[in-house]
Amino acid sequence: MTEETPGFDEKPDVPSDAAPEDAAQAESADKAGSAPAGDVTDVALQAQLDQVRTALNERTADLQRLQAEYQNYRRRVERDRVTVKEIAAANLLSELLPTLDDVGRAREHGELVGGFKSVAESLETVVAKLGLQQFGKEGEPFDPTIHEALMHSYAPDVTETTCVAILQPGYRIGERTIRPARVAVAEPQPGAQSAKSDDEVKGAKASDEESGGPDEG
């Protein structure tokens, strides 16, 4: 029989100094095996983040578009509301224009007195609050968009087609004309411009003769 030496354990087949190297290799192998798994996780998270950002941008664009549409809708509703209000007021006030004409004629003839005067002034105040404006004055240039010529004549003292008489005043609400002003117009006398030009030329010549003629260089 083989005698065992007391106090000594049996030595392993692998040297003890090789154990640290094996541990280092095993740790390196573990790290090498776990690195690709971490990269895959990062890529997946980045892809999810990109999807979330894309969805957020799309929702933001949708919200901005809805806000713009809502603002346009509000402006359109407000514009329609004002238009409907003006049309309703214009329809009402159009029915009152003959009465206002009677009030104006009575005022011109000095018949607007007493209680009739108070009623007429109250009526004019109410229609003014509704936005009714009167227009048309003698001496203003004729504008076919707001004037209706009922009479025509020539005058030597005008240089353009001019309203020389207001037969019936015009009325408007805002930019909407309810009734054009009915006027009598006068145009410059035919040949008046050429005669005026001749007079100006003669006057210039007379002035040159009195001053001894034009200066000579």
Automatic annotation (TrEMBL):
Cellular component, GO, one term: cytoplasm
Provide ranges: composition bias, Basic and acidic residues. Answer: 196-208
CDD domains, per this entry? GrpE
Q: Name one GO biological process term.
A: protein folding
Compositional bias annotation for Low complexity:
15-27
Q: Which residues form a coiled coil?
A: 49-83
InterPro entries membership: GrpE, GrpE_CC, GrpE_head
Which positions carry the signal peptide feature in this UniProt record? none
UniProt-annotated location(s): Cytoplasm
Q: Where is this region: Disordered?
A: 1-39, 182-217
A Pfam family this protein belongs to?
A: GrpE
Q: Which UniProt keywords apply?
A: Chaperone, Coiled coil, Cytoplasm, Stress response
Transmembrane region positions? Answer: none
Q: Name one GO molecular function term.
A: unfolded protein binding
- To which protein family does this belong? Belongs to the GrpE family.
Known function:
Participates actively in the response to hyperosmotic and heat shock by preventing the aggregation of stress-denatured proteins, in association with DnaK and GrpE. It is the nucleotide exchange factor for DnaK and may function as a thermosensor. Unfolded proteins bind initially to DnaJ; upon interaction with the DnaJ-bound protein, DnaK hydrolyzes its bound ATP, resulting in the formation of a stable complex. GrpE releases ADP from DnaK; ATP binding to DnaK triggers the release of the substrate protein, thus completing the reaction cycle.
Describe, as the record does, how this protein assembles with itself and its partners.
Answer: Homodimer.
Spell out the protein name for this chain. Protein GrpE
User: What is the organism of origin for this protein?
Assistant: Streptomyces angustmyceticus
Q: What is the lineage of its organism?
A: Bacteria, Bacillati, Actinomycetota, Actinomycetes, Kitasatosporales
